[in-house]
Design brief:
- This protein is an alpha/beta fold.
- The protein is built from 11 helices and 10 strands.
- The protein binds zinc ion.
- The site of zinc ion has 4 residues, from loops.
Length: about 290
């Protein structure tokens, strides 16, 4: 890559992999050990661990594998799914989220990413009320465990059954209801901004600035929005394949004070069929060119 001009304030640093993190789901066919080895070979030093990748090892063993490789772990994916039609299901979600927090602490993950949930037929305001209630119920445990919770707003196409939180603003309004602070003074409940989900929002630049100023900006996920998607979940684009101006959004995020990882999270049936080492090489090239 070369110098990239952010704005009149001058050039950004040359792109490199020092702040690149890989979500295990991006190389889904790989086990956690294969993913760690692949990242080491590719020069990536951070891995966000999905629970399906953790499962075969258990959190203790997974933590050993990650630490032995010197991997930083930005996040465990994922908790959430708070709203439900009956109390027993809501309670089961809280128990599951507490287990996710425990596992995050064990593997050294900084945060648990929350896909907050939605129930077909349940009015979105009611779903959001239950989401806030659920996060408030687990936040003390996260606080005591030294793990943060990151609400991930999801594209409105997912509002029917996956996330009643569609925008950065809706996520922020929930964060503002949560009084818990970690030992470092930062809010325990914050936001993970995924370019796929929030790039279309005309309030994005402002909301990133507000979230940064309030200490809510915890995670930043990258992939791309392809114009023709064969599947809403599993046909995401590699950076540069779609229409998201990732570098500009990253500039906003950094200007808001974010110093965390740029996490590559790509669900793709197409790319999961490739040799995953070759796929990771393409990811690295795309990251250097477009993030
Ligand atoms: Zn994401």
């Amino acid at each position: 890559g070369g110098w990239r001009t952010l704005d009149s304030r001058g050039p950004m640093a040359l792109p490199d992999l020092s702040r690149c993190a890989l979500h295990t789901i991006t190389t889904k066919p790989w086990s956690l050990e294969q993913c760690v080895a692949g990242c080491q070979q590719a020069g990536i030093n951070a891995i966000t661990v999905w629970r399906n990748a953790l499962e075969p090892y258990g959190a203790r063993r997974a933590g050993e594998i990650l630490r032995a490789a010197g991997m930083r772990v930005p996040a465990l994916c994922r908790g959430g799914f708070f709203p439900a039609v009956d109390a027993a299901k809501r309670q089961a979600a809280l128990d599951d989220n507490r287990r996710a927090i425990d596992d995050a602490a064990t593997i050294g993950a900084e945060m648990v990413v929350l896909v907050c949930g939605a129930v077909p037929g349940m009015p979105l305001p009611e779903a959001r009320r239950q989401i806030a209630e659920g996060i408030a119920a687990i936040a003390p445990h996260a606080c005591a465990s030294g793990v943060r919770l990151a609400i991930e707003p999801m594209h409105p196409a997912y509002a029917g059954d996956c996330s009643a939180i569609s925008t950065m603003r809706q996520a922020r309004l929930i964060c503002e209801q949560m009084p818990w602070r970690g030992r470092d003074g930062y809010p325990v409940v914050g936001i993970a901004a995924d370019v796929y989900h929030v790039w279309w929002d005309d309030a994005l630049e402002d909301e990133i600035a507000i979230a940064g100023a309030k200490g809510y900006l915890q995670g930043f996920h990258v992939c791309d929005w392809k114009l023709a998607q064969s599947d809403l979940l599993n046909d995401r684009g590699l950076m540069g394949e779609g229409c998201i101006d990732i570098a500009t959004i990253r500039g906003w995020v950094e200007r808001a004070g974010f110093t965390g990882f740029n996490e590559v999270e790509i669900f793709s049936d197409r790319y999961w069929q490739m040799d995953q080492s070759e796929w990771l090489q393409r990811i690295v090239a795309a990251y250097l060119a477009h993030v």
